[in-house]
Amino acid sequence: MAPEQERKSYLRSVASIERATGTRPLGFNAFWLRGTPHTLEILQELGFIYHIDDVSRDEPFLINVNGKPFAVLLTSFGVKPVCAQTPATPVDVPTPAGWPKPAEDNRVLTYVIGDQLEGRTNGLNTSFRWDGEGWIGTDFNKLWIKSEGRVMNGVTSDGDHEFLYDRPIPHLRYFDWQAGVRLDLDSGPTRAWAAIGIQGLAPYFFNFAPTLYVRDGGRVAGRISGSYDLYLTQRLILQPQAELNSYSQADR
User: What is the rounded CA–CA span in Å between residue 14 and residue 5?
Assistant: First the structure.
């Protein structure tokens, strides 16, 4: 859609809302986050002050559009239709006495997920397999910890543990860059790799995470992992995953 067509469509929506409610909308939500490179600039020109089409943060934040602040609020992804919303601004509703303090915009949050946790205790071979990750930090600075491995008959193999510093990539709001160290800790020789990569939400809502590893002896390795969330219900999600690993030479 050309910028002028997009602007006219928003003006028609604003006019419809004003006729129905008598109030001009100040916030915007596009269906399935389908904006264009010009959307935010157009919205600001039309007097909008916030939108909710960004799922890259856990709390509201400000961005710079044409040298002016523009607010990004949280969204209930996938359940809201095309609409422009009118908030109750602080001018319209005075803050009541004894109202709690505003949310801290830079508080420390935590996130943990276990993709695989299974074991077998009977039979000839006992085994245990794990694969999980998590982070702790703020919206802008995080420590990611990723760990996977297998224990069979008391012998650990495929032990892969990563400790990564994570920070958003400027002007690329759905991706973070990550850098740190990967340690192969198992019953074999310990190996340490320098790691650098990106992780985020690719177009069409694919989770995408390519990572490059380098260690002594000129050894280079790479990993590309991806997944996609299929919402069977709001609480039941099917997530197909794929992972590709490559090495520059045999690691013995």
Answer: 14
